[in-house]
Amino acid sequence: MAFLAGLNDYLLKKYRHSTFEEAAATGAPYCLHLHGHTTLQGTLAENSAYDVVVAAADGARLELPKPRIKMLYPAADAQPVQAQLTVDADVAARQLEPIVTVKQRYFVKNKTLFHLMRSQEELLITLLEGEVLKGLIHSFSRYEVTFALKDETQVVILRHAILGIRNESGRCYLKSSQQALRDWTRSEIYIDPRPRSELRPGLKKVKIKRRKKVIIR
Predict the structure, then answer these.
(1) Among 44, 62, 93, 122, which is 20 to 30 Å from 169 by CA?
(2) pLDDT tens across 116-157, in order?
(3) Range of the domain at 181
């Protein structure tokens, strides 16, 4: 079976990583972008499977369902991130809501993300409410894509908030397009094993005769 060299090892090490867990453990202030074109700064006081509790600077505690969160980054990086954030007006005009049902989300395959991370191709990621960021994939996990902007500032994008991902020429890397394009097969780390007959020269197929059942009446 064909595969990308290193992908399985990467997933074993990184797939369960959670920035929410990390932020809750450190108590560092973060900036969260929420649906409704709002931002919230605070520390993550609690993290559960489906929700987080954010302690705001004014002492208020807000419980947020994770699908409402589009992206997050350390509060200290707010200025450089927002300076590089643009908005696609056509997408914003659609007023898309958070997609709660998993099967209805815009998927990016792990093998596509791994290929793009290794190739360091410059990409444009568009979120459900039209926010657009340009940069490189630094890492990814089951629910997150860490995106490095041009000044190396890192933004954690929640995979459920992604509407589109493409390169400068417009090539789409969503699962819906990559099912046919299969760009990961062009990667230098793509390995397609040779046929078994080539791996073991002289191997011949041998027909195995099956014994006939004898029924004694």
Answers:
(1) 93
(2) 999 999 999 999 999 999 999 999 999 999 999 998 999 999
(3) 3-15+76-199
How far is it, in rounded angstroms, from Cα 18 to Cα 26?
A: 13
Report the domain count for the chain.
1
Q: Which of 70, 35, 71, 39 is nearest to 57 (CA)?
A: 39
* Domain-located, residue 40: no
d(CA 69, CA 31): 11
Tokens found for residue 80: 């450089």
pLDDT at 210 over 90: no
**Do the Cβ atoms of 66 and 50 come closer than 8 Å?**
yes
Residue 18's identity, in one-letter code, is: S
Give CA–CA dist 200/190, Å, rounded: 22
| Contact (CB, 8 A) for 129 and 92 | yes
Q: Which residues 6+ apart lie within 8 Å of 58 measured at CB?
A: none
Q: How many helices (H) and strands (E) does the chain have?
A: 7, 13
Convert the pLDDT of each residue in 44-103 to its tens digit.
999 999 999 999 988 899 999 999 999 999 999 999 999 999 999 999 999 999 999 999
Burial of residue 93 (number of CB atoms within 10 Å: 0-12, 13-18, 19+): exposed
Residue 198 tokens, joined: 């080539």
Q: Say what percent of the chain tops pLDDT 90.
A: 84
